[in-house]
Amino acid sequence: MKALIFDVDGTLADTERDGHRVAFNLAFAEAGLGWEWDEALYGELLAVTGGKERILNYINTNNPERPEVEDLSAWIAALHASKTRHFVTLMEAGKIPLRSGVRRLLTEAHDAGVPLAIATTTTPQNVSALLENALFPGAESWFEVIGAGDIVPAKKPAPDIYTYVMEQMRLKPEECIAFEDSSNGIRSSRAAGLRTIVTVNGYTADEDFSEAVLVLDQMGEAADPCRVIAGKEMGKQCLDLEWVRALWEA
Ligand code: XBP
Ligand code: MG
Questions:
Q1: Which of 119, 168, 206, 243 is such that its CA lies 20 to 30 A from the CA of 3?
Q2: Is there a single domain that holds both residue 58 and residue 133?
Q3: Does residue 110 share a domain with residue 86?
Q4: Which runs of consecutive H residues, i.e. helices, occur in the chain?
């Protein structure tokens, strides 16, 4: 087992409902758009990964009031850059903590010398802001490769971001294991040939994870144990490196 590859949103931290969604709404208000993505609507919009793609999908499917512009993709990119600024501000304010057990597993793997990487659809600035503020300042140095956002032509569920990370690390799928939270995410990691461990969240609990080697409600801590939803029990309170390795070897 030569690398643990982590998704970000929904996996390292529950960033969607109270992070990205709030940042989108702040950007919409700043632009005077009168758009409001409530929790339910956002849950539907999450079907499309990538913030710029999500905005375009919203325009095409919900047909909201918007200014007539020459270059729609440039207009969306500017709106999305504003959203990213708001998201980074929320991270700097410490608004979104790491999910249960994430710091513990990352630290265990780092201390054991198991290489770490990130494969995410979100924007690189968001990854930096989350790691710097929710893990620790300089935490990016723990990750050998951070594959994020537009670095690849096709976002999840396409395999591109996972393939990119493995290419950068010169590793084969069978040498790695992925950590995800959503159907789009596991379709991406499985299409890249990766065994995948899933920790579900509020938006993804009902999605199809039949391709996962393990589905948990969270990675957990001794004082806040995880619950196995599907896959190989190990009689453990929380997901640790030994359990991950057992799943990788299975
Ligand atoms: C989740 C996504 C991202 C975020 C918003 O990424 O699909 O688009 O919702 O971030 P993952 P951006 O689960 O792969 O981490 O607005 O920066 O895209
Ligand atoms: Mg995710």
A1: 206
A2: no
A3: no
A4: 21-30, 39-45, 51-62, 72-92, 102-111, 124-130, 160-169, 183-191, 241-249
Catalytic: 7?
A: yes
Q: Contact, 182 vs 204, CB < 8 A?
A: yes
pLDDT at residue 89, rounded to an integer? 98
Q: In Å, how far are 19, 47, 104, 107, 175 from 114, measured between CA atoms?
A: 30, 32, 14, 10, 11
The yes-or-no answer on residue 9 being catalytic is yes
Total number of domains constituting the chain: 2
What local confidence, expressed as pLDDT, does residue 232 receive? 85
Asked whether 99 lines ligand 1 (CB < 6 A), one says no
Query: Of 92, 110, 129, which residue is a domain's last?
Result: 92
Beta carbons of 124 and 146 less than 8 angstroms apart: yes
Distance CA 60, CA 72 (A): 12
Question: Which residues of the chain fall short of a pLDDT of 50?
Answer: none
25 lines ligand 1 (CB under 6 A): no
Question: Cα of 230 to ligand 2 centre, how many Å?
Answer: 19
C-beta of 122 in contact with ligand 1 (< 6 A): yes
- Which residue from 6, 21, 26, 49 has its CB within 8 A of the most atoms of ligand 1, so it is best to mutate? 49
Distance from the Cα of residue 49 to its chain's centroid = 10
Domain encompassing residue 134: 3-14+97-249
Out of 121, 130, 143, 184, give the residue to mutate to test ligand 1, the one with the largest number of ligand atoms within 8 Å of its CB.
121
The CATH number of residue 29's host domain is 1.10.150.240
- For the entire predicted model, the pTM comes to 0.98
Residues 215 and 225 occupy one common structural domain: yes
